[in-house]
Request: fold
Amino acid sequence: MPMPWTYRHASKEWRAFLDDAKERMSLESDNMAYTAVDAVFQVFRRRLTAQEGLAFASVLPSVLRAIFVNNWDVTEPRAAFDDREKLVSEVQKVRVNHNLTPDNAIEATAWAVRRCTNKRDFERVLAKLPAEALAFWHVDVADPAELEQKII
Reply:
């Protein structure tokens, strides 16, 4: 079996994703963008079972997959999905002393994730998760082509 594309081109995928997220959040540094994305992933995965989270991670590019599962304590109680304002507040409280995450962090991360994943696979996995998960990763765009996979 050949090496999966996402492993061979991990740096290229990561750079494209991080640039998208950073630009969408109007952040100045890669570190700021990483902190925001990591926080969004932590907040989302708290609302999933380990099985659901691993299914979600399986459709992410390799570096995002690693970030999503890094330091995940799957024994913690599962949190309920809250309204968007509370979720954003929770995102902004992750590593609070190093977090300059903007209010659009969830939407910006969702936008960037959708541009680096296979749409069919991403939607298939989301359809198997709680309904609130689909809402969490929903992005409104005027032109659906904006969300087409950027790196193939």
Observations:
- Residues 17 and 72 are 22 Å apart (CA to CA).
